[in-house]
Design brief:
Blueprint lengths: L1 H19 L6 E5 L10 H9 L4 E4 L6 H13 L5 E6 L2 H8 L6 E7 L10 H5 L15 E2 L5 E3 L3 H8 L5 H9 L4 E2 H5 L12 E6 L7 H10 L5 E4 L6 H4 L1 H12 L1
Helix pairs in contact: 2-11, 3-4, 6-7
Amino acid sequence: MFKFAAAVALAGALFSGAAVAQPAKPTVVLVHGAFADSSSWNGVVEILRKDGFPVVAAANPLRSVANDAAYVSDVVGSIAGPVVLVGHSYGGQVISTAANGHDNVKSLVYVAAFAPDAGESVADLAGKFPGGTLSGALAAPVKLSGGGVDLYIDQAKFHDQFASDVPAEQAALMAAGQRPVTEAALADKSGEPAWKKLPSWFVYGTGDKNIPAAALGFMAERAGSRRTVVVDGASHVVMVSHPDKVAELIEEAAK
């Protein structure tokens, strides 16, 4: 009788374990945009990791759409299992290209990000609606020995332009460590975007001065966003000032 009861208990435990077993969570790949770096995702990464998600914050080269998308594509290709691909700002154009050809990319999340259609550039979309003030906040271009120029935001204007809802001390650190983007990258035209085939989610703030909220709303609607979160007053770095809202949407996309 004891052996029978023990066998029943063991079978019950095994069955219970099988019933509650969950598939591995997808890996979240975060792609920063111009004038930012991978550390801009720190608050989001902390939440995602706490909730059990593997995370990679890729170092976007910011040299050209083709070059940057190829790099992110290589990162995605190195990951076994499903991927949620997340882009901020110019990084949205990068993920729209990098996701193509990867069956493991299951969803796209655009965080204050560009989602160009074929033949569009981020420069085209930034000027499509009034309200953007980036051009007046740029520092003098840095000439590159190989040709072309790098663009930075003037550090004195960075807080107001890029991160107005972030504490001034934190914004000053971000300004000093900002990653430049080539002028040519912002003019690069997109190919066929992955958002036409993959489900997408969007989050942005009404206080964005780099990409007008009207432009962000237009792109979200055009892409058929599954859910669009608009954060009142949030700046262009909504993932820094509101990491909880951004992480929540990413986790929704991961389901």
